[in-house]
Amino acid sequence: MLRRSAVTAGFALALTLVATPAIAHAGPDGSSAPESLYAQAKAQAAATVQTDPAMVDALSRDLGITGAQAKTRLINEAAAAKVESVFTRQLADDFAGLWLAGPTADLVVATSDSTRVADILKAGAQAKLVKHSLAALDAAKARLDELADSAPKSIPSWYVDVQNNSVVVLARDTAEAQSFVNGSGLDASLVRIEASTEEPKPLYDVRGGDAYYMGSGGRCSVGFSVTRAGSQGGFVTAGHCGRVGTTTSGYNRVAQGTFRGSSFPGNDYAWVEVNSQWTPTGVVNAYNSGILPVRGSTQRAVGSSICRSGSTTGYHCGTISQHNTSVTYPEGTITGVTRTTVCAEPGDSGGSYISGDQAQGVTSGGSGNCTSGGTTYHQPVNEILSAYGLTLAGGSTPPTGCSGYQNTYNGSLTSNQNAYQPSSSGYTAAAGTHRICLDGPNGTDFDAYLQRLSGSTWTTVAQGTSPNPDEAFTYNGTAGTYRVRVHAYSGSGSYTLGLTRP
């Protein structure tokens, strides 16, 4: 009994570290009693947490909950983060972990000591009595970590599962996993083996200007990430870097892809299809100048500024001297290339030429170097895209599928970004029907939300959120101020929005 009293006092004292002045409620006799630890943390979170409409919409869609539940969840999650250290410290060796459950993320705290259950309930959380403390589970996992080098390849993962009070070992071959666990010397009640088909692997981005290595040796540079129907996608580069069937590894020497098309001499272009560990992204690595977005491939005029990125010399700029140039290398003549004043050196081949945010071409060759200066040539990117039926990742001309609408608006987004049309301040509409059409880039998931201004808050009143790039819907509403939020749920590129207002 003394032990429970001490713990309750500990929770109350610790509260002053995580909450605003104590909230009080009427006790059974009408007196004022201090609110629970968790309730105070939730009150503080409710006053400080910003429930961004975009996040609420995304949670509602992907977790299958209402907007109100999503807002409550965000508050409860913030409150739980505030009190976790209190429960950990005050329950000490009897603490068995905590987690959030249900649509609104209700707090559950586990303990391995039945005398602690009442204290958890008084603090405002749900309580669960379990066999093993978190310390015991952590120690068991640490033992498996010590044996990691001898773990079978058929075991993709192991972890502490506080909700089920065990260490879980995932296994594609349960017999091998059982042998591994038996050899650890752990108490069998601590470990649970689960059959799994998981085969985890690291994931990497394909970026213009980054190095890649050919299977037979040598290094070149990525031009631009591309997509292709029925393909994993990949990147364009110089044809002299590899032939069809040549394998590549990335800047980190991880297996990357295979040349699917190559032309040299005559042309100097190729495309590489990457494997599932690599994701084409619409950006160029400009090294010390940062990461640059690629939003299209409109060819710039002679005299325009142009910059090149490559894995040997990084990022350098110059101007466009001439288009439609023929250049003769020892291997033969290349026609239709663009001549520039940008420098380059061996290893930069295949790398990105970009003007503003528009892709221009891939490095072919040249003379000079980046110390004394030089002249270089690039193979125009639009010719490569046309030759192989490719589309720039995150770029290209805005789609035009939303014809017949009162107004159309074009824009470009990278993954997880938002745009507001016709502007963030919206448009004034009479009562009647709004018609919305969104045409996003192929291979992406773009969504559209019609929002109405209520006081100072924008509220979503209709939406198109299919797992596709294109959306179309209508909304019959009252007079007011509206706007359309375009959201790049996954993928990047240019879009067209069609809008007919009442």
Can you describe what's shown?
The protein is an alpha+beta fold and 502 residues long. It has 4 domains: 2-101 and 120-127, no CATH class; 134-195, GMP Synthetase, Chain A, domain 3, CATH 3.30.300.50; 202-397, Beta Barrel (Thrombin, subunit H); 407-500, Jelly Rolls (Sandwich). 20% of the residues lie in helices and 42% in strands. The chain contains 8 helices and 34 strands. The chain has an 8-stranded antiparallel sheet with strand order 11-10-14-15-16-13-12-25, covered by helices on one side. Strand 1 and strand 2 (32-34) form a beta hairpin. Residues 1-34 and 395-399 have low confidence and may be disordered. It comes from Planobispora rosea. Keywords: Disulfide bond, Hydrolase, Protease, Serine protease, Signal, Zymogen. Belongs to the peptidase S1 family. Residues 1-26 form the signal peptide. One of its GO terms (cellular component) is extracellular region.
